DNA sequence: TCTTTTAAGTCAATTGTCTTGACTTATTTG
DNA sequence: CAAATAAGTCAAGACAATTGACTTAAAAGA
């Protein structure tokens, strides 16, 4: 009698879940607003003064917040503002790219403390993982040398690599990294480091970074278009990263566009036209070139005819993708970021003007329809490191629910 | 000293929030899985047997669940399954369309008990609201005649109308209903009925209906393309409807597409080609024709050359939009539903084959990439009615948080 | 200067919900 | 007929937020 029917249900919650949520709410409020007094926190979170006092006391004991000098601001007892302690938590971020791997260590407020990278020789994941574990170990010990207590306060290891994930075969596709995807990477990293590990695609990581320390800070609805070796979008919806059913939401680099009617109804994927890979091809830069970023920067500063051509094509496709994303998501803003030089990002945005008409063109906008975000090779690694911080400290539905592994 | 700085923060929660969540979790589990015993509920929700017992007892007192005959299924004491009581709650749904308004009453499980419609004469919202309030009143008393206790168990009034909302001017645009949007409709309806009122656009409502009783039942990631007089998409992300910053997420009817290179780089909005409005133009049916649905059904059953032409154009644009939505959202499935006859929906889906390649084409799919959903003129009104039920009984983050109006 | 008003923050008791562990009930298995 | 198994109850306990009175510290007004 195989009556072990799968019953689907949302988890319930309990006192512990509520309490954990309230702690997160406090940290989040301090992150968003800067230092706040207990009374202010109570008003903002709709909790009672007493509750806030208890939680703040606990957070202070845990080294996550600290008091500032009290400030007089009118009648009544002066308030004692509390602020986040940057040294309250640390996280590691790992970016695995096609030819290079990068590791970053950040603290609770997203300040970068360590960054190291290594070239990834061809040879697939078996060899690669060993190199990567060494890199992580090296970053970790550098961090511990600088801040002995950091090890104890590490909340996790975020991993970012190019998507899409879990697709069928296609091992030779240079745009993906299929061999890495069928490898038990997360398990290897988890056992190798003893840390909690979570995976995002690189665009999602870039969005996570934008939300922690970049242009999306404090925004609940933002789309980050990430221009790297490939192209993707990180979706921040309702204040959280949206990943879709299989973690592939936002893989707009693979989107086709209807082209000339008749003969060739659909043109190549967006990232064949708008990505550093396509630019490298034009500039005849090897994708494995360690000085790729600098070369592109120089090329963008003084664009020759070919670069202008690329820029025109890329910005035209992006211009239209921006229109679509605005229409589909109704976001507060769209951010163009990347592992690309700021010059290039800025020029692309320039070339996209005027933006296509859309609902986003309303007159009452608070934010620009499109704006530049983080633009450097470390953006994805930073986002990878931001993920464990967000997972540990941001208020989110899943954090309230009882998990499989004890409350 | 204007020190009334706005402090942004997520609300905290308390015992009451946790308890409310757990009640919702129970109702949701019974809705998804059918009748379940207390022990099964405890396992599924990770709550203790005792907690489940208490909550079930309370829900039974409130008339939301009831026990079935106990069933023996192996060793041990027989289980007593509990099921939702359809008569446990009721909700009203109002659809305001361009030329007609519809009201539906549903019960807790989404069964339709009353449906009434009325033609909306031109004359704008002032006159319209009076007619609509009469319609609601009429439906309400029909409901009360059939089920005297329904009035006491009404959880709200859902309203659906064509978007987009809150756009600048453009009063003459026949595709929108601008004059209705600058009118304090919700306030009028709330005071006129004494019920909680909430607004969605029609595509969002259709998606809400699909989730309560249609093809999206139990799905957490689904996109509903709604083909009505206009065209839009309802986005179900993480099990909840996503509305974007201004409630306009999913307004894909307004999306442009890159067309022939050169002269006309961008073609008309999607809904100018794929909507009942465009079909009506071709068939020379007045959009206000009360027998519009039947006429379209007949036209779709025996398509003439013009209809075939329309079908070809519409399905081609939709085919490509499906590709985009799959790429952007990575959903479990896409549902094509509408206030359109099922024949038409089916034919459109047929014409869209073969679907464009995308990440969704993986071999391990559990659900079809695209499938038909509700296809009748009452779909939106049903979705409007489904919204208050979902708001009152579905587990969601916002339901846990302390609200502005007391816990 | 002195009193009143206002606001921040604490104290101690209370409340409400989930949890714990032992117990009862009812059925199948051997 | 005893042992095993599972559903469900009982009563006490744990825990976090709440409540209302209180203390502290400043500004405002007389």
From TrEMBL, chains A, B:
Belongs to the ROK (NagC/XylR) family. Residues 29-75 form the HTH marR-type domain. InterPro entries: ATPase_NBD, HTH_MarR-typ, ROK, WH-like_DNA-bd_sf, WH_DNA-bd_sf. Gene3D superfamilies: 3.30.420.40, Winged helix-like DNA-binding domain superfamily/Winged helix DNA-binding domain. It comes from Paramesorhizobium deserti. This is ROK family transcriptional regulator. Pfam families: MarR_2, ROK. It comes from the Bacteria. Transmembrane segments: none annotated. One of its GO terms (molecular function) is DNA-binding transcription factor activity.
């Amino acid at each position: 009698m195989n009556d072990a029917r799968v019953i689907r249900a949302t988890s319930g919650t309990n006192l512990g879940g509520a309490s954990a949520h309230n702690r997160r709410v406090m940290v989040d409020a301090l992150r968003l607003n800067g230092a706040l007094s207990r009374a202010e926190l109570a008003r903002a979170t709709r909790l009672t003064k007493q509750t806030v006092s208890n939680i703040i006391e606990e957070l202070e004991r845990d080294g996550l917040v600290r008091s500032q000098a009290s400030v007089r601001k009118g009648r009544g007892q002066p308030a004692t503002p509390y602020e986040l302690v940057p040294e309250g938590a640390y996280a590691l971020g790992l970016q695995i790219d096609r030819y290079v791997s990068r590791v970053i260590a950040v603290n609770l407020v997203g300040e970068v403390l360590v960054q190291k990278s290594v070239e990834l020789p061809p040879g697939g994941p078996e060899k690669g993982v060993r190199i990567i574990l060494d890199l992580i170990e090296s970053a970790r010990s550098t961090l511990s040398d600088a801040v002995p207590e950091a090890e104890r306060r590490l909340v996790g290891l975020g991993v970012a690599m190019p998507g899409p994930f879990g697709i069928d075969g296609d091992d030779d596709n240079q745009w993906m990294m299929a061999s890495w995807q069928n490898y038990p990477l997360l398990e290897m990293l988890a056992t190798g480091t003893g840390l909690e590990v979570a995976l995002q695609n690189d665009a999602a990581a870039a969005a996570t970074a934008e939300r922690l320390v970049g242009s999306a800070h404090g925004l609940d609805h933002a789309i980050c278009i990430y221009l790297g070796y490939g192209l993707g979008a990180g979706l921040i919806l309702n204040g959280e990263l949206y990943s879709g059913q299989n973690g592939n939401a936002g893989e707009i680099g693979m989107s086709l566009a209807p082209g000339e009617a008749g003969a060739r109804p659909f043109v190549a994927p967006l990232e064949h036209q708008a990505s550093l890979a396509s630019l490298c091809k034009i500039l005849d830069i090897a994708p494995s070139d360690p000085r790729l970023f600098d070369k592109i920067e120089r090329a963008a500063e003084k664009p020759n005819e070919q670069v202008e051509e690329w820029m025109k094509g890329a910005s035209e496709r992006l211009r239209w993708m921006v229109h679509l994303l605005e229409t589909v998501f109704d976001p507060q803003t769209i951010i163009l970021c990347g592992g690309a030089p700021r010059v290039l990002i800025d020029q692309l945005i320039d070339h996209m003007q005027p933006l296509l008409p859309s609902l986003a063109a309303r007159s009452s906008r608070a934010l620009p329809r499109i704006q530049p975000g983080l633009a450097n090779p470390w953006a994805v690694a930073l986002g990878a490191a931001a993920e464990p911080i967000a997972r540990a400290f941001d208020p989110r539905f899943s954090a309230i629910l009882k998990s499989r592994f004890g409350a």
